[in-house]
Design brief:
2 helices
Length: about 70
């Protein structure tokens, strides 16, 4: 016989784990929130600059119309 759990049992396990996680998680402090916000914004800017650089390089290599 197979030892696979039924869909209901797997869903119940998932929701029990999610419930435990929400009970353990805490609200970040203002300092933590702004630190994460700064990091995310810096990464967005870096990604944008990388994309801009790639676009400039590809436009100089592949010139449209000629």
């Amino acid at each position: 016989m197979s030892n696979k759990k039924s869909l209901g049992a797997r869903l119940e396990g998932f929701f029990m784990g999610a419930w435990k996680l929400t009970k353990l998680s805490t609200k970040p402090s203002t300092r933590e929130f702004f630190l994460v916000l700064k990091i995310v914004l810096i990464l967005i800017v870096m990604l944008g600059l990388l994309g801009f650089g790639v676009r400039i390089i590809t436009q100089t290599i592949i010139r449209p119309g000629g």
